[in-house]
Amino acid sequence: MKIFQIIFLSLSLSFCSVIYGQSNKPLNNTFKLSYDYEATKNYEAAINIISSVYSETSYELNLRLGWLYYISGKHKESVSYYQKACSIMPAATEPLWGIINPYIKLENWNEVEKIYHSILKIDVKNSKANYNLGLIYYYRKEYKEAKKYFDVVLNLSPFNYNHLLMSAWTNYYLGNKNEATILFNKVLLYSPNDKSALEGLNLIK
Fold first, then answer.
1. Rg (the chain; Cα; Å)
2. What interhelical angle do 127-139 and 143-156 show, nearest 10?
């Protein structure tokens, strides 16, 4: 009995796969054409071909249009489609990473900061999001806040050049000279004669 059930299930899956492949073929061709147009930098044609099959409920179409509008320089439109993708798949970080790009071009740094926090709600130890948030607070001279995020990435990658250097300077500006000295010296292990690390050590003396 179990053998017949397995055979039946296998045949059912194969049948569904064939039907899905047939019904999905026009969409596959549309995406392929959009990639071909993108490769030749004909972004308008790539957008138009995707728009011809557009559905507001399609995560993939909204994500694709978000990217195409971004690379075509239409950043507000890009944001709009990425936002739609985010609302369709709220647990996905993919559209969040995508929407950061047009926000940066629009110099909307408050939104960039919010997006990094949104990513960390989903992926709390994401190294890139923690590091970039640390940079945002560092350049605002909010060193105490920056340290929280640099501490996370330093624990994840204790011998990463950028993590070590930014943690060293953050501790220096916080007045943590012993910690800064240790970190600047670790930078020199990674990058002997590093100008920034040597500058920091000279300031501490």
1. 24
2. 150
Residue 172 exposure: Cα atoms within 13 Å on the Cβ side: 23
**Which residue's entry shows tokens 């709220």?**
90
Tokens 């007045």 belong to 175
Residue identified by tokens 């138009």 is 48
User: What are 142-185's pLDDT values in tens digits?
Assistant: 999 999 999 999 999 999 999 999 999 999 999 999 999 999 99
Residues 73-121 have pLDDT tens digits of 999 999 999 999 999 999 999 999 999 999 999 999 999 999 999 999 9
The amino acid sitting at 145 is E
Side chain identity, residue 54: Y
pTM: 0.85
Which domains, from first to last, does the chain contain? 10-124 (1.25.40.10), 126-205 (1.25.40.10)
Rounded Cα distance, 8 and 14, in Å: 10
- Are the beta carbons of 142 and 113 closer than 8 angstroms? no
Gap between the Cα atoms of 43 and 133, Å rounded: 32
**Would you state the structure tokens that stand for residue 128, as one six-digit string?**
């890139």
